[in-house]
Write a structure and sequence with these properties.
Number of domains: 1
Radius of gyration: 16 Å
Strand content: under 5%
Largest sheet: none
Number of strands: 0
Shape: elongated
Amino acid sequence: MEKEKAKLKALIRHWIEHTREHGKNFKKWSEKADEMKMVKTSEYLLKAAEATEKTIEYLEKACREVDA
């Protein structure tokens, strides 16, 4: 069971970093879309970036619970 717990924790950490990178890209492309006057596209990408922040919060909580 300890081996699986360690694997789960490693996976969650990976998902946190992966999600963080997606969020950064969403923000970057939101800015680019805004520069291209694609207002709605920019807004939706920004909302997606905000959603990744909430996802990261939940993943961090899950990671802490692995050892609880």
